[in-house]
Write a structure and sequence with these properties.
single chain, 172 residues, Jelly Rolls, eight-stranded antiparallel beta sheet, three-stranded antiparallel beta sheet, 2 helices
Length: 172
């Protein structure tokens, strides 16, 4: 095709309406919900009624259920994730690459909003790796789970950072 004919065909193509640029994280599937950055020092709320004040030393993102929040503490590197599942979609304790080392359903008071509250702890298959501690309870017909991922050797310091958030989880 000659250059003049190509330019004529391209120039005559119908123009579509401009599309607004929306930044997408690498590896995000087309049409997937993009997570929003959390503003430290503010109050996070979700349509299901959960809320949490976000301290200045925590950064993260918010998204749709089930993975509502993903936070990281600046000083310790601990992550705190908040999930809300419909009962029929609740996850099992099985996690590929992880070993369940403790699981109990009882009336723990670690997260006052969730009672009764169960807890579970996993470690990686590797000898040295992070630890996940989860707290789960039912609230307004949903299974709410908070999961803290502690770096190797950082459980004690990490729990000091996580506890205020566990106690501050609220519902409106």
């Amino acid at each position: 095709m000659s250059g003049g004919l190509f330019a004529l065909l391209v120039g005559c193509a119908p123009r579509s309406a401009p599309v607004a640029y929306q930044p997408v994280a690498p590896g995000t599937a087309p049409g997937a919900m993009v997570r929003q950055l959390i503003v430290p020092g503010g109050m996070w709320r979700e349509p299901g009624g959960l809320c949490l004040p976000i301290p200045e030393d925590w950064l993260g993102t918010a998204g749709p259920a089930p993975h509502l929040l993903r936070l990281r503490h600046k000083g310790t590197g601990v992550h705190l994730d908040l999930f809300a599942y419909e009962p029929e979609r609740a996850p099992t304790d099985a996690r590929p690459g992880w070993v369940l080392v403790f699981s109990d359903v009882d009336h723990y008071r670690t997260v006052p909003l969730l009672d009764p509250l169960g807890t579970a702890t996993w470690r990686q298959d590797a000898a040295v790796g992070p630890i996940i501690q989860a707290w789960r309870g039912e609230l307004d017909g949903r299974l709410v789970a908070l999961e803290a991922t502690f770096p190797f050797g950082g459980v004690t310091v990490g729990m000091d950072a996580v506890k205020p958030l566990l106690f501050a989880l609220c519902a409106e």
